[in-house]
Amino acid sequence: MRNRDLTPSEKSQATFEPRIVAFFCNWCTYLAADLAGTSRMKYAPNVRVIRVMCSGRVDPQFVLDAFAHGADGVFIGGCHPGDCHYQEGNYKTLRRFHLLKRVLQQMGIEDERCRLEWISAAEAERVRSTINDMVEKVRALGPLDLIPTEEKVSAEEVAV
Amino acid sequence: MPEKPKVAFYWCASCGGCEEAVVDLAEAILDVIAAVDIVFWPVALDFKRKDVEAMPEGSILVSFVNGAIRTSEQAEMAHLLRSKSKLLVALGACAHLGGIPGLANLFDRESILKAVYLEAPSTVNPEGSLPTTHHKDDGHSVELPGFYNTVQALNQVVEVDYSVPGCPPTPRIFRTALQTLLGDELPAKGTVLAPDCALCDECPRKDSKPEQLSIVEFKRPQQLLIDEQKCLLAQGLLCMGPATRAGCEALCVRGNMPCSGCCGPTSRVKDQGAKILSSLASLVAGKEAAEIDRILATIPDPVGTFYRYSLPASLLHRKQLDRASLHEAAASK
Known about the structure:
The structure holds two protein chains of two kinds. By secondary structure, chain A is an alpha/beta fold. In chain A, 43% of the residues lie in helices and 14% in strands. Chain A is globular, with a radius of gyration of 18 Å. At the A-B interface, helix 3, helix 4 and helix 6 of A face strand 8, helix 9, helix 10, helix 11 and helix 12 of B.
C-alpha cells in the first residue's frame, strides 16, 4: 500500500544498491583486495573490481564511461607516493584526479562519487573500510542514474 | 544533360559561421554550383519548408546541416531533411559535437531563460514575459517552437552519415569533404571527413615540443609575449592540439594562438575533454596535492576549456540536473 504513495525516485531509493566500479593497481590495491579475500574479511558486495597494471593507466575517460554506463561511484586504488612500480605512475594519477574532480564538480556530480586512495598490498583492512565507507556515502547520495529513462526524457522535452 | 545532384543547406543552433564557410570557398563556389543543384538554402535562396516537404523522399543527394539542436523546430527540420536526403552531413562543430551553444548544457532551460529575458543588464522587460509555445493576440493564435532543456549534437537527434569538423570548417576541409561526397567511393558511415590524427602532427611548431614537459603555471594568451616559433604548450599555454583532430592546418597556431579544439577528437577518443585533461594533467609539475592544486588553479574553467565545442557529445552529455525538479516537471506534464 505504502509503495503507491512513493514517487518513482523514492521507490528506487528504497531498494537502491550502489554500483561502484573500482580500478585497482595490480601491484598494491589489487593484492590488498586479494589479501582481504584470503583473510575472509567481509565487506560490501557493491564493488566491481577492474585490475589495471597501474593507477596511472586509468584514463579519465574510463571514469566518465563508468558513470555514463550506470556506475554510481568510481574508486581508484593505487600505490603510496614513492612506491609506484613504474616510478611516476601514481603521481600522474594524482594530478589527473585533482583536475577530474573539478570537472565532475562543474558537471554536478557529487564529490563522494569519485575517490582515490593509496592502499599498499598489506593494507587489506583499508580496502575493507574504504569500500564500506564509500558504499554508505554513495547510498546516502542515491543513484546517479545517468542513463536516460523514459521518465527523464519526457521531463526534458517539456516545452516552455 | 543528366540531372545534377541536389544539395541542401540548413542552419540550426549556431552563429552562422558555417554558412560563411560555404561562401568562403570563394571562386571554388562556382565549381560547386556547376556540379550541383542547390534546392534549399534559407540563408541565401528563397525556398520554404513547404518546398522541401513537397520533394520526394531521398531526392536530395546531400543535406548539410550546421548547428546544434536546441529547439523543437530544429529537430523537426533535421528529421525532415533526413527523410528527403540520401546523405545527411553534420557541418561544423555545433552539428558535429554540440559546439559553443552546447555549453548551455551547464545550465537548464529555466535559468537560461531567466538570465536572458529577466536578468541581463540590457534587458527591458517590465512585464517579465518569457517565451511561450502558444500565443494569442487579437484573436489570432500562434504556435512557436519549444526550447529544449538540453542541447544535442545532430547525430543525437537523427541518423547522420558524415561529419565535417571545424568552427567553422576551413574552405579546404569543406572542399575536400564535398569532393569525397560527390565522388564514387564513399567512406564508411559515421566518418568524420578530416585526417584521423592529432593536430600536433601537422603543427608547424612540432619540432620545438620538448621530450619532457613540466608545467608550473598555465598562462592565458594575454599574459605573455608569445614566442612565434616555440611549441605553445612548452610556453605554458593551454593548447588543445594533443587531443584535437588535424585538418585545419593549424590555422590558430600559425596565428600565434593556442588550439581551442574545434575539430573534435580523433576516432580513437570518446571524450575529447577527458583526453586533454589526461594529457595536460600528466604534464603538471609537483607531487604534493597542494602544489598540484596551485598549478591546476591556473585553469579557471576546466569544462569550458576542455569541452568548449564538445559538451553535448561528451560522455556526461550535460551538467546533472536536480532530480527533484525533473520529476516535478514530468508530473506537471
